[in-house]
From TrEMBL:
<dbReference type="InterPro" id="IPR001638">
    <property type="entry name" value="Solute-binding_3/MltF_N"/>
</dbReference>
<protein>
    <submittedName>
        <fullName>Transporter substrate-binding domain-containing protein</fullName>
    </submittedName>
</protein>
<keyword id="KW-0732">Signal</keyword>
<feature type="domain" description="Solute-binding protein family 3/N-terminal">
    <location>
        <begin position="24"/>
        <end position="243"/>
    </location>
</feature>
<dbReference type="Pfam" id="PF00497">
    <property type="entry name" value="SBP_bac_3"/>
</dbReference>
<feature type="signal peptide">
    <location>
        <begin position="1"/>
        <end position="20"/>
    </location>
</feature>
């Protein structure tokens, strides 16, 4: 065998395990400030993107990270077109569907109305029953809320659209992550038009997800995440994004 061909075969053989071990990681492209694409380079940015990248580096995992619409994220994980996806609510439904690792963080899921709207707060979900409640299609929020018989509007395809629908007066109340909803409200310079109800729906932990049964990858990610969290090495990322 010629020397050049022999060296090429050696290099190819060394490269194959690394490629086979690489993870295809996908996240929501419309979940600012946690994950989004900005500018001409369309590079993934956001709080959760930075945390996930830090954990994957800590675990020594080769990866390719891309952001897509949420429905496609879930589809890619279900079809085996991705090894890992983020960011999933820690609900019983999601735990039944996936191997969850984390949480990466927790966020308050809240209700938002227009400031002129008469609803001051809520104590039971029944208090919201008279109103149209908007949510993003395909999102899971909290078990009791997800199954409650609201006049529910799930036509919004992403949180930015959901905020726009509220500001346009098309729905009475919207539900979502506090930091995220306010991000899109500020984008519209509409802080004075909205009000967050004092009582949150839930403090919801957010996880990364693997296919059901893929416990080895889930544990590898979880161990690296725990090491970074215990050492306080993710705190600077959380602070920079206002969490």
């Amino acid at each position: 065998m010629p020397v050049r061909l022999f060296l090429f075969c050696l290099l190819l053989g060394a490269a194959l395990p690394a490629l086979a071990d690489g993870w295809r990681v996908v996240g929501d492209e419309q979940f600012a400030p946690y994950s989004f694409q900005y500018g001409e380079d369309r590079q993934p940015r956001g709080l959760d993107v930075e945390v996930v990248q830090a954990v994957l580096r800590e675990a020594g995992i080769d990866y390719q990270l891309r952001l897509y619409p949420w429905a496609r994220v879930k589809q890619m994980l279900a079809l085996g077109d991705a090894e890992m996806a983020f960011q999933f609510a820690g609900t019983p439904e999601r735990r039944a569907q996936y191997e969850l690792a984390g949480p990466l963080r927790s966020g308050a899921t809240v209700f938002m109305t227009l400031r002129k709207f008469p609803l001051a707060d809520w104590q039971r979900l029944d208090d919201l029953a008279p109103y149209s409640v908007g949510q993003v299609s395909g999102y899971s929020y909290e078990a009791a809320f997800d199954s409650f018989a609201f006049r529910r509007d799930s036509s919004a395809q992403n949180p930015r659209q959901l905020v726009a629908m509220l500001l346009a007066g098309r729905i009475d109340v919207i539900v979502g992550d506090r930091l995220q909803l306010m991000h899109f409200v500020r984008e519209q310079r509409a802080e004075q038009q909205v009000r967050i109800l004092p009582r949150p729906l839930v403090e919801m932990p957010r996880y990364v997800a693997f296919a059901k049964g893929d416990s080895a990858r889930a544990q590898r990610f979880a161990s690296a995440l725990q090491r970074l969290q215990r050492a306080g090495k993710l705190d600077a990322i959380y602070r920079r994004w206002g969490l």
